[in-house]
Amino acid sequence: MFTSDHGLRVRRLYKLILRVHRGLPAELRILGDNYARDEFKRHKNCNSDEACIFLNEWTNYAINLAKQMKPLQQAKKKTVGEYLDPTLLDYMTEDQLVQLYQLHKAASLGHEQPDSTLDQHKK
């Protein structure tokens, strides 16, 4: 279905995301690594149109997070992330909305077992 070049691009992007996550606070790094791993596994056998969208969105995520992790940006803002445009919610499926809510709950827990909420959604 995909060429070997595609597989190489996916692996490079995944490794880049994990490297960028190293600059996050420990609890966010765990949450981010687990979420990225699950998403990449979940989309392993998707069709080519979905794969294109998936790779573009994760590439944008990696670029935006890398920019936020620069020392100068950290000194100015002292925060990571950005607000989600509420109009995007209209385009999400019910499963995506549930997943977004679960991710929000897990991120809001702070130090209290950040990856356990994501595991409950899989059951």
UniProtKB/TrEMBL annotation:
Keywords, comma-separated and alphabetical = Chaperone, Mitochondrion, Transit peptide
Q: Which GO terms describe its cellular component?
A: mitochondrial intermembrane space; mitochondrial matrix
Positions the record marks as coiled coil are none
The residues that cross the membrane are none
Question: One GO BP annotation here?
Answer: succinate metabolic process
Q: Which Pfam families match?
A: Complex1_LYR_2 (PF13233)
Subcellular localization(s) per the UniProt record: Mitochondrion matrix
Q: Which family is annotated? A: Belongs to the complex I LYR family. SDHAF3 subfamily.
Oligomeric state and partners? Interacts with the iron-sulfur protein subunit within the SDH catalytic dimer.
Q: What does this protein do?
A: Plays an essential role in the assembly of succinate dehydrogenase (SDH), an enzyme complex (also referred to as respiratory complex II) that is a component of both the tricarboxylic acid (TCA) cycle and the mitochondrial electron transport chain, and which couples the oxidation of succinate to fumarate with the reduction of ubiquinone (coenzyme Q) to ubiquinol. Promotes maturation of the iron-sulfur protein subunit of the SDH catalytic dimer, protecting it from the deleterious effects of oxidants. May act together with SDHAF1.
Query: What is the name listed in the Swiss-Prot or TrEMBL entry for this protein?
Result: Succinate dehydrogenase assembly factor 3
Q: Which organism is it from?
A: Parnassius mnemosyne
